[in-house]
Task: structure prediction
Amino acid sequence: MTQLTTKKLELEKFTVTILEPGIVEDHVKPGMHMETRDVWNLKKINQDLMGNRTYAVLISSGHLSSVSKNAREVVASKEFVGRTLAKALLVESLGHRIVGNFYLTVNRPFIKTRIFTDRNEALHWLRLQLNP
Result:
């Protein structure tokens, strides 16, 4: 079951929120495990919500959420880019920081991606990517 408002879409594993023009937040809910089909679904939702515009993504994760190896590879690929200009990974735990650093080092995302511990800094960086 989904709930749609003008700015937020709630699904089983994640929530997608338009934070401001050009920036969408993808929040993986606590305890959820994201597989390849989940990240493609998330990508489609982002594109539908943002229309035909380029956009940036703030990715946040709840406690004990995770992403499969195959899903990380897909998200890092050139084929996954679409109209996404940049991604900011907001990490709040050591485990998520380790996975984020692994993703940046091993998967080498095609989209410009940085890790942040501060939400405001992440949003500021995303704004700079949209309006260089």
The domain at 3-130 is CATH 3.30.750.24 (Transcription Regulator spoIIAA).
